[in-house]
Design goal:
Layout lengths: L6 H23 L8 E6 L7 E9 H12 L3 E3 L6 E8 L2 H9 L4 E5 L15 E5 L8 E6 L3 H11 L3 H8 L5 H14 L5 H10 L5 H14 L3 H11 L5 H10 L4 H7 L5 H19 L1
Helix pairs in contact: 5-6, 6-8, 7-8, 8-10, 9-10, 10-12, 11-12
Length: 288
């Protein structure tokens, strides 16, 4: 049944097979090692390249978390592009680096500090939102420097839709976190006195989710010029079942002593303390 080979022939065959195995193992050992996942942001003093981001085979969420940890700038997001990111981005501002990283696969909304601490902080962000991500399942790969800030802004205004419209759509999302983030972003990107935004915020302060209500109240009190609408919202929110919403109400009060006096007796210590501090400040201003 079996073919018999002379001893010498069998030895040669074994050596030949052993040689093939060794060559195969050597070939496997010579294969290029898999790229190690990493995300590193280097901050330097080199003009024009103050921020240098190097990303290799890592999810977008992890990249944004790493950037936040390094810069202490909150970056809000709910849904991000799928796939692993590989990118090299260099720029003078964080906004430039983020735009390079996202590569137009999502909208970026940023808010700058109202009063920068130093003149050198020009261009520094207070917080950012990543919105409208495209779920195409492809990996992002980009290498190179970002375009100058001014050039990017011109391109954005001609190529992108009104950010307010995008945020309004997201504010009606079934996802509570997405609604809250979109409403928060409207504070920076929302068109002033837009009746559609005003109506949406007045509805959102009654949202079933406490985080959405708190964010809507914050945006309404800081964005809207409708004092009557703000007053009604604050009067309701000061009795909300969520301490976060009540705290946001106290934060939004500018000169309503009656509401602050109600908040002084709140069941939550943080709300009480904040109300007392604000009430004392108003009393001092009135005495001057």
């Amino acid at each position: 049944m079996y073919t018999k080979f002379p001893l010498l022939t069998r030895t040669c065959l074994l050596r030949h097979l052993l040689g093939l195995i060794i060559v195969g193992l050597a070939g496997a050992g010579m294969a290029a090692p898999a790229e190690k996942p990493m995300a590193e942001l280097v901050i330097s003093t080199n003009k024009g390249s103050e921020l240098q981001l190097e990303v290799r085979q890592i999810p977008m969420a992890e990249v944004l978390k790493a950037i936040t940890a390094k810069t202490q700038v909150p970056i809000h997001f709910s849904v991000l592009p799928d796939g692993l990111v590989t990118a090299t981005c260099v720029g003078s501002t964080l906004k430039q680096v983020l735009e390079c990283l996202l590569e137009r696969r999502a909208d970026l909304v940023v808010r700058y500090p109202h009063i920068p601490d130093k003149s050198e902080s020009k261009g520094q962000l207070a917080e950012a939102w990543v919105l409208g991500s495209r779920q195409d399942g492809t990996a992002c790969s980009l290498t190179g420097n970002t375009l100058p800030e001014q050039s990017q802004q011109v391109s954005d205004t001609t190529a992108k839709p009104n950010p307010s419209d995008t945020l309004l759509k997201m504010a009606k999302s079934n996802n509570a976190a997405g609604r809250a983030e979109a409403i928060g972003a409207l504070l920076a990107a929302g068109t002033k006195d837009d009746p559609k935004i005003q109506e949406m915020l007045e509805d959102a302060v009654h949202d079933e989710d406490a985080n959405v209500r708190a964010q809507a109240l914050s945006t309404l009190t800081h964005w809207s010029n409708d004092t009557e609408s703000i007053s009604v919202a604050l009067s309701e929110a000061i009795h909300d079942g969520s301490a976060d919403v009540r705290l946001m109400a106290v934060d939004g009060i500018t000169d309503d002593v009656d509401l602050l006096q109600q908040a002084v007796n709140d069941s939550d210590e943080v709300v009480r303390t904040t109300a007392i501090t604000k009430l004392e400040s108003l009393m001092k201003q009135a005495a001057q």
